[in-house]
Records
---
Amino acid sequence: MMFKDKLIKERIPKHVAIIMDGNGRWAAQFGNERSFGHEHGVEAVRSVVEGAGEIGIDFLTLYAFSTENWSRPKEEVDALMGLLVQAISDETDELKKSNVRLQVIGDVKSLPDNVQEKLAWSIDKLSGSTGLTLVLALSYSSKWEIVEAVKRIAEQVKLGKLEPSEIDYDLMNCYLNTSEMPDPELLIRTSGECRISNFLLWQIAYAELYFTPKLWPDFRKEDLFEAIFDFQNRERRFGKTSQQLVS
Ligand code: IPE
Ligand code: IPE
Ligand code: MG
């Protein structure tokens, strides 16, 4: 039986986040440049977005480029930005047909102008969709996001529009890039690395973590379904005891 058929429909996570890792190592297996791996990573994105739509996930957040990734060699950064523009151009029509909406989190203004323009074009074109929301994390890092939120909250306090006593979890949520999404219940990282790399630190406070050795260009929707199957077989206690959950 396929993993998809084993999933409990009522317990599909609303939000799944993925750290898409291992493109460079995948390319190296074939003696190719790292950018070859990034190019093939697009096929994995296509499959996973399709799979997420099929099982009714509401939000799929993909970590595509971190703040730290700006430190990579210029040729690689340029190749990634070019690929991003290409992929958005190529995929937007299909995403529209699939009723997918697009959103971006991260320091969008730090991206090259043509990338910003292409993103804005696609977001606008897909704004009428009512199915899956695909969230791309671009020039994103969680510490950056939290510092930005704190700065804006401090500004409100300074203006006398907010009392420090009013600052709570809900208010913090409102100031994050993810304010319109539920927290991810499941975080997947490919390539065997077991770290978070500055991704959604606040939002994954209670997420289930799933690490797979598969390199990102080899990842397909069936792997997503397997991760969700694993997720559905975990007991999420949120600090309570097992017994409390039963009763
Ligand atoms: C993930 O693959 C893609 C990005 C971070 C943009 P990597 O490029 O990190 O590939 P590895 O981890 O070096 O194999
Ligand atoms: C994390 O992958 C960032 C993205 C997937 C976009 P990296 O490959 O950059 O992370 P590290 O360097 O292994 O922590
Ligand atoms: Mg990596």
---
Amino acid sequence: MKINGNYLNLKESYLFSDIAKKTAAYKTAHPEADIIRLGIGDVTLPLCQAVVDALHTAADEMGKKETFRGYGPEQGYDFLKDAIRDYYKSEDAVSLEADEVFISDGAKSDLGNILDILSRDNTVLVPDPVYPVYVDTNIMDDRRIIYMSGNAENGFLPLPDTSVDADIIYICSPNNPTGAAYDKAGLKKWVDYARAKNALILFDAAYESFITTPGLVRSIYEIEGARECAIEFCSFSKIAGFTGTRCGWTVVPESLVYDGVKLNRLWLRRQTTKFNGVSYPVQRAAAAVFTPEGRAQIKENLDYYRHNAKTITDALDKLGIWYTGGINSPYIWLECPNDMKSWDFFDLLLTKANVVGTPGAGFGANGEGFFRLTAFGDRDRTAEAAERIVKLLG
Ligand code: PLP
């Protein structure tokens, strides 16, 4: 028996454990310190009432012989797929067929699982800085990875370089960690590039619900030609606080054909073989997100986080600090002042303002000198943190 030795090529991710260790050490040395954490990517508001009611009702159904459900369709129940299709139609004017939507237990799983149907010979193009899952899942399969540079000059929105050949392209918009979001023109360039190279775009739309600026793209299928070159991943985690409830979806258009084969067929085969679907109560809960009450309630939660983001960006504006994100994203990606390195700035904020953020260097070489703050915290605590930052750096 041999192990998959590619796992030994994975770099240990020390980012969040290092943050936790440093924060704990500081707290031990300064027990009186009132530390505010703006480093987490997890949400803090509870599920909205419409979702909780749907969970209760579905739990009751599962407890009665007449309404009990056993195995469901691996691709998800029609009631949820139809709710998602309606969401695309109303928000993005995108029409999807029922067979093109696959319900998952979250975007992270499918972002990893999709690689099952793609050859290991493909070259992968990922942005730097990057959500680490894109890199690690490809290292596990020993695919060749090349990087495209996100930087202050391109607003952390790299565009294609036609001299570079790639087969699989990861695009995350609005982006984690940078909060930057592509407009139609930018994404059209990526779609054109992918089609010219016969490449596939893996489009991560986990943060689409934060977009408010007209002209920015919520779904890649708003771009002409994307149905021929892109798979889209999305999640209820950030739309509706499902980080602990677990539900997402993946769109694989029927028109995606490579090597003469429909990717939709391969993905269906993969899912029906290796996945037994998301639980009925969770799918009912997810469908409740798209009811009129659910939509009104999640809007309140999203507005709460948007308000936090504005509190943080107002502070940065006051200080004249350059940043991306915060407007169409829960992440604020700022340039560390005075040419500081990411971890030095982390130490400064921790020790002098008792505020914890995430050093950009943890997301790739291009993250050095940058820093991520999140809007997922408590409103009053975020305001307090912003005040402390202004006081420290002002
Ligand atoms: N994609 C991005 C860019 C993320 O930041 C995250 C979570 O933080 C995910 C996907 C994972 O989403 P899920 O909770 O649906 O697995």
---
Amino acid sequence: MMLVNVAVFAPLHDVYTYRWPGHLGEPVAGIRVRVPLGRGTRLGLVLSVTDSLPPGLDKERVHDVIDRLDRVSCYDERRTRWLERFRRYYLAPEGEVWEMALAWAQARDAALLECSRPEGLPERFAPLGAAWRGRRRALKRETVIARAAVPHANWLLDQALQLGLVKVREAVPVMEDRAMEDAPHALTDRQAEALQAIMAAGEAFAPFLLFGCTGSGKTEVYLQAASRWIEQGRQVLVLVPEIGLTPMWLQRVRSRFGGGVGVWHSGLSQREKWSMVSRLGDIDVLIGTRSALFLPLPRLAMIVVDEEHDASFKQQEGIRYSARDAAVLLAQELKVPIVLGSATPSLESWRLAREGHYRLLELPERIAAPVPPEPEIIDLKSLGRDVLISPPLAEAMQKTLARGEQLILFLNRRGFAPALQCCSCGHIAECPHCSMRLTLHRRASRLRCHFCNYARKVAPACEACGESELLPLGEGTERIEEWLTEKFPEHRFARFDRDSVRSMAALQEVLRAFSDGRIHGLVGTQMLVKGHHFPNVTLVGVLNADLGMGLPDFRAGERWWQQMIQVMGRCGRGEHAGRVLIQTRMPDSVWLKRLAPGTEPVVLDEELQLRGALGFPPYARWVRLVFSSRRHESAWKAAEHMAGILRQQAQRWNVDLVGPMNCPIERLAGRFRVELVVRDAHRRSLPWKLAPLLVRRAFGPGVRVQLDVDPYDLM
Ligand code: ADP
Ligand code: ZN
């Protein structure tokens, strides 16, 4: 009897055994299959082929594999090993990992069903004809009908294709954007050094941190390295943090490498994805967001992670992996160089560079544009509590617009964690034990520390100056567009954030209008900060600098700083130098003093030292467990139960446990959230030792557990 062990695509830690029916050909490890599970069917991945039943499993109770979706393995040995390490690190169920990793293959399944009508098929393909008729009756449900109505439609289709009985329709090429001229530049000495170092690594694992301000020529280095690999018939993967950055990258890379450039992100249609998947072998450069990492490029020779510090590389739902860290792991398995690029490296990468694990390559100067301006700080405190745009900023805006130049207003929205700020001295309430901002819990009228659980009642007046009342940070920013249209009626402004720019087309349109000069100013959030190049922008105004600082997250400062540096980098990239104006109620904040151009390495070293002293990441490794339930009590009990189990191990493993405590965002989508944070200062026990504690553990009815290894967002 031929058997296969299958990782079923479901959040299950178990592997299931099925019988392999002869009509599906030879079984191969690494292919996807459809199998029965419970009352329904599921897809899964064949992990291994065997002829012996696992002990305790009765022959009669083994079910048959229903269908086979692939002819050959989806992944080779190295990628399989990579995913196995990935799975162990992120403590994720096998089936869930494979389902996520092989999501790209679904594009191929959809494509298979785009067959022309199978005419006059031989007898054994009869089920296909039935599936086809079903499809014609209900076009919308084509996939469901084809697979569910005919148990082995995929494998049959595949065979029919092989025999030339059915044809696949042409895949539509991914929409081409207009190309611009971008010839390779003669490299500066520093660029040439960087390129040389990268190429000298050859075909071996070699991690680099390419550290240079915006406009210092990092992209030029990636592109020239890429072109060397392409000449040798190899492939390069470029990961970018945001879908919004792909058009810009595509333009630039296409003008260099022409048609051999592929793109991958969640905004592609199923057909476009299929087109990409079927061209994987022909592509020279693939540009994509997180999920592009899972595409099995057959001749991959180098990985680039641009803006490596960006929090968007960390997936925030499902398996909470870091695409940057997973990329390093992949480079290790594939034995290829990886280049992490940033103007404001993450402290994770900075530490590895400082300790010599990553080779640090620096590009300290901007290539063409003038040096970035020193930021000018505007103290809002004296201007009353409601002021949105201060007179100095308004005046600078007026002058900029009058000169026919453009401006960007940056609105920090990531600070929606409620904190209290004194409107006369700017002080934000802090924890006496952690030097972390306290979070306002409105209903309970309490301020709480999300690191040690310290809590106290909201004081009637500011604890620092004793004067004024405290106001929640970050309200009232919605009025800006109104203000602008009123104040500058003859100019055009656009919002640029996730609420106002919902589609890829809308995004491209706004970017185009701004670069053509049809729009004079952009008001935007984080999305605006990243990578865009607008030579005519000579004024950047930061409206509410304090906001991101008010987060109960030890990375708040780091992230705020990265963002500010990026925002400032949007300014004066053309012929004219620019001005950066930052509005704040905390003009004496340490972080504000860390914005002077050229001080980045000092800032990073200082912050790294502080993290070391506090025993925080990147020195420590943390795992966060969030228990959620519609009933607060259930979530709390589950967390407490787990805490009990963990406490028994804590000493032996040499780890600390914080919690249970309510999450900063106490309730989300109707579910109460209670967290535990396990901290491993030595990075030896975590996350691996947690695995056996989590497998097959029930936490009570209606309780969900969300695991986050190396959490980036502690909300
Ligand atoms: P980064 O990726 O660090 O922001 P880029 O590679 O995009 O920097 O370079 C910034 C600008 O300078 C681009 O317009 C690019 O074409 C140009 N540039 C890059 N390298 C050179 C060079 N060696 N000589 C002249 N111009 C260059
Ligand atoms: Zn505290």
---
Amino acid sequence: MNFHILTLFPEMVEHGLCTSILGRAISAGILTVNAVNIRDFAFNKHNKVDDYTYGGGAGMLMQAEPVYLAVESVREKAGHIPRVIYLTPQGTTFSQSMAEDFSKEEDLVFLCGHYEGIDERVLEEVVTDYVSIGDYVLTGGELPAMVMIDAIARLVPGVLNNKDSAEFESFKDGLLEYPQYSRPEVWHGKEVPKVLLSGHHKNIEEWRFQQSVERTRMRRPDLYQKWLEQKDSCKES
Ligand code: ADE
């Protein structure tokens, strides 16, 4: 899968994405990260990409043409017209099911805004998905793009070396993951729950499930409610 990130700070995403699990997947040729500097498409004297907003108001806006040309360059490289995600607090809140949907694409383009945003006209022409990573405002789209890429990439076959670990995640079946323990058996006077030492797989599975349910009920009542509703609708059908 190919991630194309259109940004004014390409080194930020290159450094952020090329380590650890994603770095390994890039070396293995499973993923590519193509950081495109929007400034390279500003064909004016000072490579300027921003200007004042019509109608007045504080701050500068990224201009349409360099963004458009950067998108065009990626379309050419990809050989088709990939989805273009614009990172903005005005978008749909990113979720695990959106990550699953995006992970099926061959190419994805992330458009990272800065300053006061991007000229609306180019957004209308190129953006297919407006996505937010939460109800707070960041200084640019690079961190949200990296968050999304991490969540999407780990779902791409071969990125995690154990297939189970992709499935075995906090949102499996809509429940949070149960607590886990490693050695030593007693740490700071706290013992590992006895059932986990029993070797009785069925009991362990049941204990973990109950822990998941209880943890979801306590920490994420919103998810718990959804899980209950989904469980009931399965029973009815
Ligand atoms: N750009 C600035 N804040 C953002 C957010 N919360 N999500 C996505 N993009 C953003």
